[in-house]
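Hello forum,

I keep getting stuck at the same step: I have a sequence, I want structure tokens, and every attempt I make locally crashes halfway through. Rather than fight my setup again tonight, could one of you with a working pipeline run this one for me? It's a single chain of 265 residues.
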Amino acid sequence: MLRLQLAVLTGVLCAAAATGTAGAVVNGSDSTERYEFIASIPETVPAAGGLKGVCGASLIHPRWVVTAAHCVDPEGTGAVPDGTVRVGSDRRTSGGTVRAIDRVVRHPGYRLGAPNQHDIALVRLDRPVRERPVRIAARPGPAGTPTRLLGFGTTVDTSDITQIAFPERLQQLDTRRGAVSECSPGFADENRLCTISRKPGAMACIGDSGGPQVQRGRHGRWELIGTTSGPGDTGPLCADGPGLYANVPAYAKWIRATINGPSHR
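Reply #2:
Ran it on my machine without issues. Output:
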């Protein structure tokens, strides 16, 4: 969770509205286009006095979003989803289409850790939405491929949860695929993508968990390659190092089986 775990508690804030991991995405910028597939999941952290937060997600089917498993793990992280998902809005608390959460399916191999294992989950909406889902890429591009991060996470890079500040406007940050060796040993692998910012002092942070990393596919359309999972090293701050993303294409078979399974239709 973005900085495991600025204890577990901070990471679970997946977006506390201190008014989750980057000026939001730390040192990012306001979104420059409409991303119909962007989604957000409001959350509450009872152990932090009822602090309100949000995780990111991506619409991959009219009735399903993909997010980080730790975003929908109340027992492990202490953050409780409020029961809704907002789809297609560049505003954290308004606009888009709001649907109730009908079902949550975490990957069976998910485990909290440093780094998290199989940190991916699917959330089914109670009704379909009209927004256009993002296509899951056949595979992430090689190291060096230009990518983009999206999120409503804190604009202040801090380990003090009382200092985090979440934007209302969706933020974006241009990044690139990193080589496995650019993250700390044992962090990046075939299931976890190392991600490097193209701007110094910038990266996903608290509140961006579960949000998308995308790359350009054919015809210039965005394709989903990752969901924000946590830091790519052991440093104390988000923007001083690489980010770590669940490799969504690596889970495509599980995603299809879950969405098309008889108990989930």
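The longest helix spans residues 252-260. If your local run keeps crashing, start a new thread with the error log.
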